Amino acid sequence: MSGPLCRLRRRCLPGCAATLGPGSAAYGHEQTPDEKTRYERDECPDRGQISLLILGFTIIALMLIIGAVDVTAVQLARTRLFDAADSAALDASDALDDGSAYATGLNVQGVPITDASVRRSATEYLAAEPRPHGISSWVLADGTGSPDGQTAVIRLRGTVDIPIVASVLAASGGSVTITVESRARSGLH
């Protein structure tokens, strides 16, 4: 017997309604040897299909977990880089430029600073400070200095260590670089 009933009967347990229908042994019809071997051979034609589905969903779940871990690591490194830039900007904001302080004197608006004094102070501060966890290197970027002679602007560029896909990025010649900017100003009271 062929058709939808046979296909349904092969997947049903013995004694269910589909196996007790017309053409079954319960209705007085014995299976022929050909039907028996075909039934045994095709007992589970879809065997293994759920394994592929589970494997696919497991790979997707692992990719999402790996992505979440790496994105979190980059965000934490960015926050730590901001902290270092803030500290360097605070240190550089009171790095008095001796030349302009003696030439023009101190004004009430703030401590006179220059691009050179800000860069020098930030370089010294970052050299003495240990690099935070997750940052493999850092350097002062272009734009570090004092645009108005009283505000210290620190642009810090850092290379981030990514915990899981770092080897893939290194093999392709790439890396994750973050640039942050911080401003600080010291006033005279």
Number of helices: 6
Our Rg estimate from Cα atoms comes to: 36 Å
Strand order of the largest sheet: 1-2-3
Beta-strand percentage range: 5-15%
Shape: rod-shaped
End-to-end Cα distance, whole Å, is 101 Å
H/E topology pattern: HHHHHEEHE
How many beta strands in the DSSP annotation? 3
Look at the helices and sheets and give the structural class. Answer: alpha+beta
Number of domains: 2
User: Stretches where pLDDT falls below 50 for ≥5 residues?
Assistant: 1-13
Major sheet: size, sense and barrel closure? 3 strands, antiparallel
The share of residues in helices is 40-55%
**What average pLDDT do the residues reach?**
78
Question: Keywords for this structure?
Answer:
189 residues, alpha+beta, 2 domains, disordered N terminus
